[in-house]
């Protein structure tokens, strides 16, 4: 009779770059997300919850090369059930932010959405990057966007909403700085309208 070798127990350790959250931390995060959502609602933004997994095509051109499809994101290629040896399955990835899924949702449902479409999303995102102190591979993101308008008022509204959100969660005015990066402003300055 052959002797069966006993397999060692797996090591009980959190994967590198990830962490566990307990009791009070989970409660505090939930309360903070509810507080942030209330500010977004006050501004008239509606919630959107999209899938945690998207096709690589929908997420955009983040793959540095075909040989390393997992660089920067957690991605895998689906297997064709009819041909497991095939390399033609769709590439899928965990979302790395909440704006890229919005682009897919808007393209897919634009005829059913109001114009402009003002949405917010909150949830975990994943990045396959080197972890470090305070830098994890999974973290929560709160995102708000206005789609379908070229008005600068939409950008100003996002800045005002951001300020109100920071102050509502306890960061006083003067302890934060909102920076705006806009090519139109840079182009305007380059044409000689700058402060120099």
Explain what you see.
With 196 residues, the protein is of the alpha+beta class. The chain is 32% helix and 16% strand. Helix 1 (23-42) runs antiparallel to helix 4 (152-168).
User: What is the overall number of helices?
Assistant: 5
Profile the largest sheet.
3 strands, mixed
Give a count of the beta strands, DSSP E runs of length 2 or more.
6
User: Uncertain runs with pLDDT below 50, 5 residues or more?
Assistant: none
Question: Main sheet: which strands, in order across?
Answer: 1-5-6
The portion of residues assigned to helices is 25-40%
Indicate the mean pLDDT.
Answer: 87
Which secondary structure elements does this structure contain, and how are they paired or packed?
Blueprint lengths: L22 H20 L3 E2 L5 E3 H4 L15 E3 L13 E4 L4 H11 L7 E10 L11 E10 L4 H17 L14 H11 L3
Parallel strand pairs: 1-5
Antiparallel strand pairs: 2-4, 3-4, 5-6
